[in-house]
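Run log, item B.
One chain of 192 residues. Sequence copied directly from the ordering sheet:
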Amino acid sequence: PLPQNAKGEEIDRECPIVCACGVASHRKGVDFFFEAARQLPQLQFLWVGKWRSDELSVNPIEQNFSQDTLENFFLSGEVKNPHFYLNLADLFVLTSREDPQPLIVFEALILGKQAVCFSGTGGTRFVLDRYGYVLHGEPSVERIVSTISRLLPASGERSFTPDWLDTMKKTMSDRYGKQEALSKFEQFIGMV
């Protein structure tokens, strides 16, 4: 099923989609993601994963989602395999304040998605230094909003796509095909 916003409306696959993933919590930076959605109403924001965090008895962002009912903020709910939802996205944003080595970034890259993270996130920054975008300095909504605005500009404006992204997509597709690359990745992770 397609993700829905607080009003029960389904995401529009024809409009740009910014995606993040994980259990909604302060550590995962869900507050940054929600505020970016508020500041960029022309884009759709999709949170893939569990929305209720066990680490908080009351999740303030969960309350905001229910109260603010942003039309451009969508939830998938908890899923076993995020690939369908990642494929909907135009951009993957890792908003985590800290996250040692989230595998979802590798999955997004294998699927040919541009990806962004904060420099203090963890090991992901070393991958995204080469194959994505790393936001240096303290994690902030301003940094996320500025970067998303450059990567997914308003219609009619020129969008920035790095040369390596098409090369990486073609190489992965030619060598393995998307599904086989994801299967190989999942096999590798299972061995670790």
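Observations after the first pass:
- The first helix runs from residue 30 to 39.
- The chain has a mean pLDDT of 82.
Flagged for discussion on Thursday.
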